[in-house]
Amino acid sequence: MTTNLEQRPLPAPADPAAPAPRSAGRRSADVLLRFGLLPILLLVAVVTFSVIEPRFLTPLNGTNVSRQLSFLLILTIAQMLVLLTAEIDMSIGATIALTSVISSKVMVAAGGGGSGGSGGIAVLLAGVLAGLAVGLVVGLLNGLVVARFKVPSFIVTIGTASVAVGAALLLSKGAPVTGLPPEFTSALGTARVLGVPVPFLVALGVLLAAYVLLSWTVLGHYLFAVGGGEDAARLVGVPVLRTKVTAFVLCSMLTSLAGVLLTARVSSGEPTLGQEYVILAIAAAVLGGTSFFGGEGRLGLVAVGALFLVVLSNGMNLIRVPSYVQQVVLGALLIAAVIIDRLRSRTAR
Amino acid sequence: MSAEPDVVLRAQGITKRYGGVAALDRVSFDLRRGEVHALLGENGAGKSTLIKVLSGSVRPDEGVVVVDGRQVGDLTPTAAVAAGVSTVFQELALVRTLSIADNLFLGRELTRRGLRRKSGMEAEAREALARIGVDLDPRACLDGFSRAQLQLVEIARALHRRSPILILDEPTASLSAGETGRLFGILRRLKDQGVGIVYISHRLAEVRELADRITVLRDGRGAGTVTAAGVGDDELVRLMTGRALGELFPEVPRQPGPVRLRLSGLTSPRLREVSLEVRAGEIVGLAGLVGSGKSEIGRACFGLERLTSGTVEIDDRAVPALSPRQAMDRGLIYYPADRHREGLVETGTLGENIILPSLVAGTVNRFGFVSRPRSASRVQQVVEQLSIRPPQAGRKVLGFSGGNQQKALLARAFARDFAVHVFDEPTVGIDIGAKLDVYQHIKRLCASGAAVLLISSDMEEVLGLAHRVYAVREGRVVADLRDAEVTEHNIVQAFFEPTPSLVPLGSARS
Predict the structure, then answer these.
(1) Which among B221, B345, B398 has CB closest to A232?
(2) Which residue in A has a C-alpha nearest to residue B216's C-alpha?
């Protein structure tokens, strides 16, 4: 009657969530995967450059680094917001170019040849607003097309990039737009407050705002949720389309802000401005641990990622590494960063 | 012990962990030539993981697999097929854009001088289909085939390889009674030819009819191997659950109030004129085979199924533009069956997943800002009421066991008061302890006056929990069973009762 062949009693169930014991080596590998190589890399870069080149650790170079960091920090945060939603914006270089041309054109037209005086502030304001309007339009276009038609953002934003660059070249007839009001170039380009360059203050403001957005607001939670599980987010009622469009608009408007600052720095509207920032911003965000697959990224590390790239390029310039070699280094770093990202997402599973 | 000569496949001490959770814990299993060895166990007991190990698609952390006397070190899917193991998975591995013949020969095409021999492959495919009595055109593209048809194609492919070892993972889940009978005939013939068959199912009657031996898995461990002849249902259930049949389900008193959910004439490509109602304080089961449309009914309530006509009424008010957001605003919440894709934000922590529905409902935020204290107390409330273990809100949700992940999904019930709760397969792939917690949760909701629609393929769950049952077949409600009518016999009969309007399953729909 009893037909059991090899029945054995069940052992008491172990706590299913008890973590498996880990070796010390495994733990340090975990730490590495958690924070990434980045802080170590930054430290190595700083030490190396200060040893080789005494000019590296000087107040003058510090100002230099902070100025260069301003643009990349803003652009990296912009790209991060889109990456969090599991999308990407390839059009930030083109947005910078179009912003530069349009804001310059507006200021030249409004200023009527740089008369200065009390009209100066109004002209400056008109230029900045025109630049931000470019960001608004590009961001809405990117976001609505991507979210509404569910098409890959990689392709869509390459398309808008082409449109924007073409428009910038058309409007400027391929030549720099000159004759910007001096108030503009001085206030947003060269001026300092308490010794700190104005663009860097703006970038710190953006960093603070992004911190509040990501850590404290509902929208911030939605950005992570949409990127980490779009269907799951939709099913609990997260407005997925609106969140994605908002991410693209914020990204493009921050890009335009950086574009205006860059324009002030070079003192003319340049239809070729900003192209190198597409890869730099993605590299910095991913080096800082922002996942290409969406839903993961920490602002602090992303800022360190931007700092690292700026320090690297500044240091390499100081010790006269040829710019071609710098390109190779940057590309290799980007690839290394995505491999680490992949490994991390695998260990999370 | 000396190796028995007729053992063709042996797994010894297999352990497989996912994160901290052991899906298989030192499981051993063997298959003899010419036998049907059934694997039985609840969802999440480890059946699927075990056959994935046997077929080389999952690498065990510990243990060995011996095929035909040879230990296979690093078993890959390709190595398994080469060694003579053919597997039909539940998730069908077919390329939908190719024809039946192309799929049958995928990866081992017949060629002549480097070119594909199309006619030869088609003729052989026709023969392979005829062997299992399926009348399908081998040139037909799989796109547009029903699940049952795809299942048959997959079985034809496995048989066509003439492997000495065949593994079938719930092959009858979407087959009709007639097709099931035919499949059994084929399997018996193969058995006589010496083929060893691993057969997975959770239909006890089916297993007892077909199998020679039965191995029961429970929570990733082998609970015992018995010879099928003479073993009773009670014995098998006890092995599977570790308890008697009646103990699993809480007694939920039925106190029917007013109708809270009313569906009238829901019609979509997969639903035909579905009408039903659920009252306050009532658990209504929706039973049906996989692909019957029962899941689509639940999805339709939440705006996830494109309706051509019909209305969804919540508390006597029709929901105009159905969307998840609209449905939630009107008081209906849906718990999706696919925990990983639709249920959880997988990159997030437990706490983030618990909070998200409450953020949407606006109960833990103010002016667009998240209230830390309120979200912390919401997380604590959910973790305590659903006994989520370990109670670590900051831990990644994927680091939890399936049962605790499922509870994180249930957290949406706490976002606000909902009038109607629609559960789609709420206990798939979770352990018994978690099941009890889920059932308690459903009971609490029902007792608080909500209406519960329980969509489930788990017959025992429907029988044990629901006050009333609608049976669904081919996208329609075919039976409305109450009180004493709610029996397994009546439900299964409703699944299979022939109706003249049915499209014969064997014929390809174009």
Answers:
(1) B345
(2) A7
The sign of the torsion formed by the CA atoms of A50, A53, A59, A62 equals negative
Angle B381-B388-B239 from CA coordinates, rounded to 5°: 140
Average pLDDT over chain B reads 86
Lowest mean pLDDT among A293-302, B101-110, B324-333: B101-110
Contact flag B21-A222 (C-beta cutoff 8 Å): no
Residue % of chain B over a pLDDT of 70: 93
pTM: 0.77
Tell me the average pLDDT across B93-122: 84
Q: Identify whether the C-beta of residue B354 lies closer than 8 Å to the C-beta of residue B408.
A: yes
Angle (nearest 5°) at CA A105 between A103 and A107: 70
Residue A336 and residue A321: Cα distance in Å, rounded?
A: 21
As a whole number of angstroms, the distance between CA B290 and CA B148 comes to: 9
Token duo for residue B233: 């249902």
> B404–A17: do the CB atoms touch at under 8 Å?
yes
**pLDDT, tens only, B323-356:** 999 999 999 999 999 888 899 999 999 999 999 9
Residue A341 has pLDDT above 80, yes or no: no
| Domains defined for chain A, CATH in brackets | 53-348 (1.10.3470)
DSSP states of A178-212? ----HHHHIIIII-EETTEEHHHHHHHHHHHHHHH
Per-residue confidence (pLDDT) for residue B43, from 0 to 100 = 63
Cα B479 to Cα B470: distance, rounded to the nearest angstrom: 6
| A–B interface: beta-carbon pairs under 8 A | 135
CA distance A236 to chain B (A): 5
Q: Are B334 and A235 in contact (CB < 8 Å)?
A: yes
pLDDT at B451: 96
Shortest CA distance from B339: residue in chain A: A232
pLDDT digits (tens, 9 = 90+) for A21-51: 445 566 666 666 666 678 888 999 999 999 9
Q: How far is A8 from chain B (nearest CA, A)?
A: 6
C-alpha to C-alpha distance for A98 and A121, rounded to whole angstroms: 22
Question: Nearest CB to A216: which of B334, B369, B400?
Answer: B369
Element (H, E) at B213: strand B213-218
A246 contacts on B by Cβ (under 8 Å): none
pLDDT for position B508: 38
On whether any CB of chain B is under 8 Å from the CB of A10, the answer is yes
Range of weakest confidence among A119-133, B216-230, B297-311: B216-230
Are the Cβ atoms of B431 and A16 closer than 8 angstroms? yes
Burial B56-71 (b: 16+ CB within 10 A, else e): bebebeebebbbbeee
Over 90: is that where the pLDDT of A207 sits? yes
Do β-strands B213-218 and B221-227 pair in parallel, antiparallel, or remain unpaired? antiparallel
Answer whether residue B319 shows pLDDT above 60: yes
Beta-carbon separation of B356 and A225 below 8 A:
yes
Q: Tell me whether residues B345 and A224 touch, CB distance under 8 A.
A: yes
